[in-house]
Amino acid sequence: MQNVTKISKRKQAFIVSKLTSNFSITTKNGNCNTTVTSKSFLNCMSTKCTEKNPVQKSCSQQRESSTRAFLSTAGSQGRACDEKTIEKHLAVQAMIRGYQVRGHYLAQVDPLGISDQVSDSDRAGSPPKIILEHHKLQESDMDTEFKLPPTTSIGGKDTALPLREIIRRLEQTYCKHIGLEYMFINSVEKCDWLRQKFETPSATDISADEKRLTLARLTRATQLEKFMGQKYPNEKRFGIDGLEMLIPSMKTIIDKSTEHGVDSVIISMAHRGRLNVLANVCRKPLHHIFTQFYGLEAADLGSGDVKYHLGTSIDRLNRVTNKHIRIALLANPSHLEVVAPIGQGKARAEQFFKGDKEGKTVLSIILHGDASMCGQGVVFETLQLTDLPAYTTHGEIHIIVNNQVGFTTDPRFAKSSRYCSDVGKVVHAPIIHVNADEPDSVIHVSKVAAEWRAKFAKSVVIDLVGYRRFGHNEVDQPMFTQPLMYQKINTMKNCMDKYSEQLIKERIVTKEEVNDVQSKYEKICLDEFAIASKLTQIKNQWWLDSPWKGFFKGKDLPADCKTGVKEETLIHIGKHFSSPPKDTKFIIHEGLLRVLKARMHLLEEKKVDWATAEAMAFGSLLKDGIHVRLSGEDVERGTFSQRHHVLHHQKIDKATYRPLDNLYPDQAPYTVCNSSLSEYAILGFEHGYSLANPNCLVLWEAEFGDFSNVAQCVIDQYISAGEIKWIRQSGLVMLLPHGMEGQGPEHSSARLERFLTMAAEDPDTLPPDGEDVAMRQLHDTNWIVANLTSPANYFHILRRQIALPFRKPLIIMSAKGLLRLPEARSSISDMTEGTEFQRIIPEQGPAFQKPEKVERLIFCSGRVFYDVAKAIKEKKLNSRIALTRIEQLAPFPFDLVKKECEKYGKAQIVWVQEEHKNQGGWSFVEPRLETILGSSRGVSYVGRPVSASPATGNKQQYLKELANFLQEATAF
Does some domain include residue 835? Predict the structure, then answer.
């Protein structure tokens, strides 16, 4: 590259003196033409330009060449300027940018004034003194007019302003009660839009009508906390005293969003302020809330939960916009941020079922605590879904309810970054810090946040900085750990009183009007309190956050659940799934062609493997109009290269073919999507998705079964216990690859024992006899746990999820070794009309013919069946040992297992498993078998001994253990 002469500082300055001229120069460098204008050149010279303009993306030689031409043209104007003046112009440009980038550090966003950003004493005399010194400007320059760059809107229609006015406006914008972080966003359009919303003179002004509405909403929020504090002084309520502006903020966001077409809002939040949000945002009747303080018995299903964990779903008229809106506040346990991905999943599902591909009608609002926002990793995992095609909700509004303390932990010990909101920068969300005791600023920020999301379909973070007037809860003593903070808080007037005084001073309201608003709401509270005091029971249906209207009406429990499908339908799906694309120009991998040929060969023999049975289950549901969604890490191909639901063109990037999308012209949509490398957020997301509509099959697959333990919080709090706590049914399917194939500890066990332990079933009680016993067990349980051995049974259990008249989560110990095992094949006749899921698969060999001759009855579940069956066959013990598979472990098939035990009345009962004795199904199965057998017969265990690890990492050790317990299982 040839050497180029560096542009002198004087020449750079010369450009600035010609800003009133509109130059546009095109130069040619090699094969590249470059256009430079005075505007683009100044942007690049005076700011860190993020715009993809010709100056930025050209090489240095190209840039220098263009600049020389620009200087030459500019010089032809003949207007010179001294270097000192130009340096000052450049200094002003840098100063403006400095405020835009770092002004939030000076912003007065802490109503307590005790944050470590800038103290009042340090602030005194800083701007403009330090500003001037830093940029080598002087007091004498304060009345000098300077040209404003195109990267600021502080001038409004003015193109130049005196330095004194420039600083005043920058201070007003960036250093008052709003701290704006946005210069990291990689879009000039978005940055310019935000600057217009905050820098333009009078942009942040609030009308008198808006102020009166804000005061009314603030009054309701404040008075409700005060009323509950008086009536229930010794009860926890986790109020928002000190952050009451959360309520007007949320209502403003909803108002503004409905103007842009939103008619459904999904709110995800922890316990802080939940009762107030229920009352004053969702508008849940107050007597429903007050009854939760009385400890009344539930009138319907469910054990219920504490009042500040419960949710709701409300359809109402928004009186500000006169539009109908549905607001759902999702139930949440004490695990704070776990609800965030669940809300995202529910919002995504609602958008899907409404055909809302741009997120125009469904909005997700997520509330965070300041400590949990930066402390809990699921926040990052959830944010990372923001722009993923199969997970995006097209922007959500995050509000940090920032009370500047985490239970008893000071912020200085809770985070390493400056702000708890810094994680939001990952997705280029603008972060707006605002003083919660400055209502006008909060309302402006809330409007901008709603408009940003509506315009750009991107996320935004509001950091609402306030304080916690009481302790972690109202009976906690905060002075133990934050004495200085609470000495300050105890002197603070509440926000409502301060704002009332402000509006009275501004002559927007009178003292009488303020008192009237307060007394009216107090009367409402008293009337609702009187209603609540007369109630004798709580209806948990009041707290249902995901109602399925009409789903449960007129549905009785059937005696069975036939899930078979016409053979012609199965063959059609199978052939389509086993064939390459009809487009001969679509090139697929040769290895895949072999896979497809093998599937087709099996199909010709009227047999199916695991992957084909799964495709037939999905395809037949799609044919019936049931939406199917499968997600997880690597699900498109399948972790074990078994699925191949997305075929990739070998020559063209992003060209794919999805066979299950093209089965029938009027089929339901099929979504199969690889997820981010996350279990916690993705499982939460899919659970949330399953809540929106019962008529869809939602599946999440762990890459390996044990990886699900990263999402244990979602499993424990929502999937296992969600129905009993919150009357929230879900048909979510969890596919957990499981099997001891000598692949080491972390690739062996899905921890079957954990899921069985959480099954809500009494091991000591036999279910009452009856034709519908299996269906009643399913209805009464909290979830279904299965360890399958047959592709046909896999097909049926997936279809049963939709055929049931209710919804239960399904946990499948999914196959690994069985995916390609020749013995693990099913006949299509096992899947045709009239067939159904088999809870157990009994012995069908020689032992079945002469049960009185059988000496041992072995029960097992899952992959180990094939190992035991092989050992029995090799030793020619088929007539002496009966081998029965328990496919559905929970709810336990008491009735069928009892029949097997009675059939082989003289046989020794043995349970065989491949997992270690303290793992697997043994501890779950043993007491149930004892209940069935009574004291007359015992049951023996055969398998690996106890171990702290799920498996050995040594292949030889694994084989030795396998041989040992197979020998024991078949020894006489």
Answer: no
- State the pLDDT confidence band at 336, using cuts at 50, 70 and 90: confident
In terms of domains, do 151 and 275 share one? no
Among 129, 127, 146, which Cα is nearest to 138's? 129
| Domain match, 23 and 159 both | no
pLDDT tens-digit map of 196-218 = 999 999 999 999 999 999 999 99
Tokens for 293, please give them. 């303080």
User: Residue 280, SS3?
Assistant: helix
Domain that holds residue 103: 86-176
- Around Cβ 148, how many Cβ atoms within 10 Å? 20
Q: What residue type is assigned to position 710 of the chain? A: V
Q: Where does 751-829 have alpha helices with state H?
A: 752-757, 773-780, 791-803
Task: Report pLDDT for 936.
Answer: 81
Is residue 76 predicted with pLDDT exceeding 50? Answer: no
Residue 335 is assigned to a structural domain of this protein:
yes
Q: In percent, how much of the chain has pLDDT > 70? A: 89
Sequence-distant (6+) residues with CB within 8 A of 534 are none
Residue 302's pLDDT is: 62
Q: Tell me, what's the pLDDT at 299?
A: 61
Write out the DSSP string of 285-307: -HHHHHGGGTTPEESSSS----G
CA distance 913 to 922: 8
Structure tokens belonging to residue 89: 């112009």
Contacts of 739-742 spanning 24+ positions with Cβ under 8 A: 739/815, 739/816, 739/817, 739/818, 739/862, 739/863, 739/914, 740/863, 740/864, 740/914, 740/915, 740/951, 740/958, 740/962, 741/816, 741/817, 741/863, 742/951, 742/952, 742/955, 742/958, 742/959
Query: What does the CA dihedral 211, 213, 215, 217 come to, rounded to 10 degrees?
Result: -150
CA angle 943, 948, 952 (to 5 degrees): 65
The candidate with the shortest Cα–Cα distance to 812, out of 730, 702, 680, is 702
Task: Confirm whether 122 is domain-assigned.
Answer: yes
257 and 395 in a single domain? The answer is yes
CA distance 763 to 209: 64
At residue 857, what are phi and psi to the nearest 5 degrees?
A: -110, 115
The CATH number given to whatever domain includes residue 360 is 3.40.50.970
- pLDDT tens track for 217-254: 999 999 999 999 999 988 888 889 999 999 999 999 99
Whether 365 shows a pLDDT value over 60: the answer reads: yes
What are the pLDDT digits (tens) for 48-68?
A: 444 444 334 434 444 444 444
For 459, the token pair is 């996320």
119 pLDDT band (50/70/90 cuts)?
very low
**Token couple for 934:** 């009574």
Same domain? 895 vs 929: yes
pLDDT in tens, 918-964: 999 999 999 999 999 998 889 999 999 999 999 998 999 999 999 99
Check residue 6 and report its DSSP letter: P
Residue 771's Cα: distance from chain center in Å?
41
Domain count, the chain: 5
- Phi and psi at 312, nearest 5°, equal -170, 170
Do 357 and 396 have their domain in common?
yes
Residues 875 and 930 occupy one common structural domain: yes
Long-range contacts of 229-237 (CB under 8 A, 24+ apart): 229/474, 231/290, 231/293, 231/529, 232/293, 233/474, 234/475, 235/293, 235/474, 235/475, 236/306, 236/308, 236/473, 236/474, 236/475, 237/275, 237/307, 237/308, 237/473, 237/474
pLDDT (average), residues 399-404: 94
The share of the chain scoring above pLDDT 90, in percent, equals: 72
What are residue 603's phi and psi, to 5 degrees? -65, -40
The reply to whether 67 and 95 lie within a common domain is: no
**Rounded Cα distance, 350 and 371, in Å:** 30
Q: Which two tokens stand for residue 640?
A: 């074990």
Token pair listed for 341: 């991905």
Beta bridge partners of 36: 25
Please indicate, yes or no, if residue 194 is contained in any of the structural domains. no
One domain, residues 425 and 535: yes
